[in-house]
Amino acid sequence: MDEHKINMLSDKIVKGTISEQEMEEFNEWYATYENLSQNVATDKSQEALAERLFKNITTEANLHISKPRTIKIWPRIAVAASFAMVVGMSLFYYSAKQADKMRQTAYLNKIKPGGNGALLTLANGRTIRLDDATKGELANEAGVRITKTKDGQILYEVKEITSAKDKINTLSTAKGETYTITLPDHTKVYLNAASSLSYPASFATLKERKVELNGEAYFEVFKDAAHPFIVRTADQEVKVLGTHFNINSYKEDGNTKTTLIEGSVKIGFSSGKNETEVIIKPSEQAYIKANKIYVDQVNAEDAIAWKNGYFRFNNETLEQAMNKIARWYNVTIEYKDPNLKNRNVYGSLSRFSNIAVVLNLLELTEALKFEIEGNKIIVLQK
Questions:
Q1: SS3 325
Q2: 3-state DSSP call for residue 288?
Q3: ∠ CA 131-133-137 to the nearest 5 degrees?
Q4: How many degrees, rounded to 5, is the angle at CA 209 between CA 204 and CA 213?
Q5: Alpha-carbon distance 102 to 110, whole Å?
Q6: How many CA atoms lie within 13 Å of 242's alpha carbon, on the beta-carbon side?
Q7: Which tens digits make up the pLDDT trace of 47-80?
Q8: Helix or strand or coil: residue 380?
Q9: Around Cβ 277, how many Cβ atoms within 10 Å?
Q10: d(CA 266, CA 232)
């Protein structure tokens, strides 16, 4: 190996950029040199080169090694080279960790909490992007005027008593969206993320005020004893006259839960095959499991925390908590160990917090850690 090549390799050793193949080449040359030096007088130019390389490597690697005359030059270079390699690899590892940390921070900064937004689909198929629409009249159909208020809510006003039985409108939110609507009967509905509500454009000629829900919503039902208000989900049917309640019917959460805030509601099966009905009182929650209706005493504030702008994790599973986070921050979740889904977590904080704050809260309650890859949150055991 010529002097230029040896100098180049030693320089790479100092900088920590030498490859495994190049290091093997250097060591092979050194072993050959060492064998020769044990049998023949070492060439003065080789000695000078060895001395220079040793000085360069130890200086750059910040090594302070005394030079006893009994120690050969190349073993000392090998020691210095090894140390330089360790330093180089450590720096590389540190740099990689820093780069990964910067990458994680960049991903976190791109993930934003949800906000006000929804898509309104009219009976004639026309769609209106509500977060883009300006305030004022949006549509006028079946004697009903639909307007957007100054504070961004949707308001239905009945102008004529006409039949609107088949005039079904649908309000839908995507992940990261929530919206508030006042229905034609003056019932106010707060729709959570990744949800949809279908309802007639007018209830004027109908005996019942029936709507269909997928996802989650909070209802403040306008009292009308002559016209019961009915909410249908995939497995529940909730009948009320005038009351405040929350329904969570996300498929990924396992079952539909109806939580009563005030008044009273009657819970039955949406299929109609089972005639069992249960009346619940404030701070009670009804859910269906194995074709039976169960009622639990709960803290109603936990159920409507989302509507008030909070996450509240009160002894719920990590999977349930992460489902809420996924819907609000519009992210996907991956579990390295499926058993982590059943961990119980606790905590309360604003839904408008940076997602890093939310994940940190969960890390504090359980031995968990999170990695971010683009729009995906990976859950790992700490």
A1: helix
A2: strand
A3: 130
A4: 135
A5: 12
A6: 8
A7: 555 555 555 544 544 444 334 333 344 454 555 5
A8: strand
A9: 12
A10: 12
